[in-house]
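Quick bug: Acyltransferase family protein output formatted oddly.
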Amino acid sequence: MDKKNTDIEVLRTLAIVFVFLAHIPGILSPDSFYWKIFNISRFGSGVDLFFCVSGFIVTRSLLSKNMHLMSFNDFRHEAKLFYIKRAWRLLPAAFFWIAVSILLAHLLKSTGAFISFRAMLKSAFFAATQTQNIFFMTCRDHGGCGNLGIYWSLSLENQFYLLLPLMLYFFNNKKLCFFMLFVFIIQFFLPRTLDNHTPVAWPIRTDAISLGVIMAVISTKDLHNKIKPKILDNSFILGLTFVILTFLLAVFTKPEPIVFFQVGLTALISGIFVYIASYNNNYFSGNRIVRSFCEYIGSRSYSLYLTHVIALATTRGFFITHNPDYSAMGTFVRLCFFFSLTFLLTEFSYRCIENKFRYSWKKKTTIDG
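Here's what came back:
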């Protein structure tokens, strides 16, 4: 068994930090200094990094099974196990926080913290059926997604992974790489920058996931060792590389595009990050303190993603809807409330839902067997 890849945990931490930076302006003053930064970078590329990491991890977990060499009955069994495992890993927490959002939309309607109860039910339907990315194309432009809008990325991932076992069955590794490269290339030059209008191709993009799949295949080949970035053994070059890639990942989310294909570039940068991390060489996690911190945040990145928007909406409802205090002290209090609530909700989600249900698929398959 491979040792735990702590560099991947660093990338998960970086991705969730970007997600927070993308959403936190909602509780800050419109005149705050952060909005000047936000007008340069929207930090929306955190999801691309998540996609690429996910594509790498999930594909690598399946490659050892050699599905393309299986009989159809063996493949059907393995695919069933994969779907059940993934459902138990992700859906309990997702469904729980969908239900909480519906409840809060009713209980806190007077605060304006959440969209209307009826609108929340509609958004919840698409989130629960894993089609939120399709709904997102229309609901975002008129504010009808609510805090469940973030489920667009979860829906897209689950749609992709519904097809991944089939692709692994019909394609050998070489054909899979060429197919994923084709998927990446045909999207690369599409103008998909997210601004006041939601481009159709934005919530259905699979280029970063495709690169993650390619990196997973390459990581199992002799070629992987031949193209190892030995230059990164130099700590200065390694640090500079991390800073440059992080900067580019941020700047290519500028509302006024630097280049029209900047979303494709964020997928490519994510792929470079995952390529470096694929060596599991502690390139990004060499420092013990950094490693420990990122292992903690990375392990909870899914729950952080689900809960932080609920904490944001609640913070807005309690502190901003009526007579907002944008003083330094008022901002400090709001931020403390938001981060504290996010921490509490995340720990509850991780400990009581994620960890409780993530291995329930084993019981399910044992009973079925």
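Actually, after a second look the formatting is fine. The chain has a mean pLDDT of 95. Closing.
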